């Protein structure tokens, strides 16, 4: 799956008074039809995309689907498969922030409403970069609640991951063959010297917490104590162990040059630059979870020389091939995003209007050198990879095949598998599958 994305971050800053709406800053609300046309011109079949949560989800069970109806009809008419991003670093004003304990259940209702309205959608990222969202909002104090304690971080993380899990359950009720691609930042912390080893090891366990909880992976004793010491209860923790939907998931790993960190003895960190790289760090995550992998985000600024982004694309693609050649089931690659972004040089903390040349196209919708390079890469590799490894094929149907009998059969099998799993968990005898009628009724 070759993919790109429409940058749709929307956290709040300045005590919640200012929303950093990247769709607005990057001109997508005005140019969305052109943006979708550019996706087709690139030969990209998959688009990470989602409706702006703050203008769509107006209150409990109250939605304005007008923009989503237009845009998702546009994607479907162009036969672009969306990977639907329902929550990207922010919540509606009426929710407040990620400290709100009502967020998980309310979000699940939002996810259910979306899935019911767009039943042809199969791929989802319910909550984007759960670890980064909690870290920047509730530990670094940059976004949303702008808090800076371990307790606020654990609270945000618990609510965010629970929202993701409940959202997956709600979507599966409407679309039993849904596949969830967790877009999560793949991090690593390097000790500056022996005095920093303990702190680096601790941070290298914290980086896994979002996916540990999401996949029902039992944490180590130090992390268990850390969670309980900072407000998570035993009941909260066991919710994640007992609601494991790992078998519906692809582990999406995001990697940027800023994903590796140098840890000082006092616990402070700074960017280390690329030391291990995507393939090594992805190997660590795969060893922990054993799931199919997708490279779900990367980019680099075009730079003064004009070719820095192109060279980074080549390096990341080489890492994808290295992961595959090492025997890991990697199913896709993403350059994020389609167009340049705005104010990510300050991680959206400041509202300066600074254009970051990270896109395949600039904000005038002119293709950048990395866009040309990505289009060539897709043309050259699209037909080669599936013939070399069956694990590069995912049971996903494009929009123009969503009403086919093959899709209905897949959904019936998925429903039966879920009933069997539920019955087994409850100690009951599973029921037989219902035959599919020739009319699909």
UniProtKB/TrEMBL annotation:
Top-level taxon? Bacteria
Give the protein's recorded name. Beta-glucosidase/6-phospho-beta-glucosidase/beta-galactosidase
Annotated GO biological processes are:
carbohydrate metabolic process
Entry-linked InterPro entries: GH (IPR017853), Glyco_hydro_1 (IPR001360), Glycosyl_Hydrolase_39 (IPR051923)
A Pfam family matched by this chain, by name?
Glyco_hydro_1
* Alphabetical list of SUPFAM superfamilies matching this protein: (Trans)glycosidases
Per its record, what are the GO molecular function terms?
Answer: hydrolase activity, hydrolyzing O-glycosyl compounds
Q: Which organism is it from?
A: Deinococcus hopiensis KR-140
Q: Where is the composition biased (Basic and acidic residues)?
A: 405-414
Composition-biased stretches (Low complexity): 430-441
Q: Where is this region: Disordered?
A: 402-441
């Amino acid at each position: 799956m070759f993919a790109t994305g429409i940058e749709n971050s929307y956290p709040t800053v300045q005590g919640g008074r200012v929303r950093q709406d990247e769709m607005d800053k990057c001109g997508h609300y005005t140019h969305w039809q052109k943006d979708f046309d550019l996706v087709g011109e690139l030969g990209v079949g998959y688009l990470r995309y989602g409706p702006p949560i703050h203008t769509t989800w107006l209150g409990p069970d109250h939605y304005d689907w007008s923009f989503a109806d237009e845009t998702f009809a546009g994607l479907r008419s162009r036969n672009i498969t969306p990977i639907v991003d329902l929550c990207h670093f922010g919540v509606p004003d009426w929710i407040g922030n990620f400290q709100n304990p009502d967020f998980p259940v309310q979000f699940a209702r939002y996810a259910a409403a979306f899935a019911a309205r767009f039943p042809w959608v199969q791929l989802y990222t319910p909550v984007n970069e759960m670890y980064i969202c909690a870290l920047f909002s509730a530990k670094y104090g940059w976004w949303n609640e702008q808090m800076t304690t371990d307790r606020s971080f654990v609270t945000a993380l618990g609510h965010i991951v629970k929202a993701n899990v409940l959202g997956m359950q709600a979507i599966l009720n409407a679309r039993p063959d849904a596949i969830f691609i967790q877009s999560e930042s793949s991090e690593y912390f390097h000790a500056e010297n022996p005095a920093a080893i303990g702190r680096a090891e601790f941070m290298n366990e914290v980086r896994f917490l979002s996916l540990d909880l999401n996949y029902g992976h039992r944490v180590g004793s130090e992390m268990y104590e850390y969670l309980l010491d900072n407000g998570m209860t035993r009941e909260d923790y066991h919710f994640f162990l007992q609601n494991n939907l790992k078998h519906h998931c692809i582990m999406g790993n995001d990697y940027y040059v800023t994903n590796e960190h140098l840890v000082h003895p006092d616990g402070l960190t700074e960017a280390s630059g690329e030391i291990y790289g995507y393939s090594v760090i992805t190997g660590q995550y795969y060893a922990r979870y054993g799931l199919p992998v997708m490279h779900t985000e990367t980019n680099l600024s075009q730079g003064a020389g004009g070719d820095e982004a192109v060279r980074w694309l080549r390096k990341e693609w080489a890492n994808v091939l290295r992961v595959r050649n090492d025997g890991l089931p990697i199913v896709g690659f993403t350059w994020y995003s389609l167009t340049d972004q705005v104010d990510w040089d300050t991680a959206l903390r400041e509202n300066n209007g600074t254009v970051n040349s990270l896109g395949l196209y600039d904000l005038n919708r002119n293709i950048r050198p990395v866009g040309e390079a990505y289009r060539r890469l897709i043309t050259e590799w699209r037909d080669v990879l599936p013939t070399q490894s069956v694990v590069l094929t995912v049971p996903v149907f494009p929009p123009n095949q969503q009403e086919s009998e093959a899709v209905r059969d897949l959904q019936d099998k998925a429903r039966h598998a879920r009933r069997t799993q539920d019955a087994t968990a409850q100690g009951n005898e599973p029921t037989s599958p219902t035959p599919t009628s020739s009319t699909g009724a």
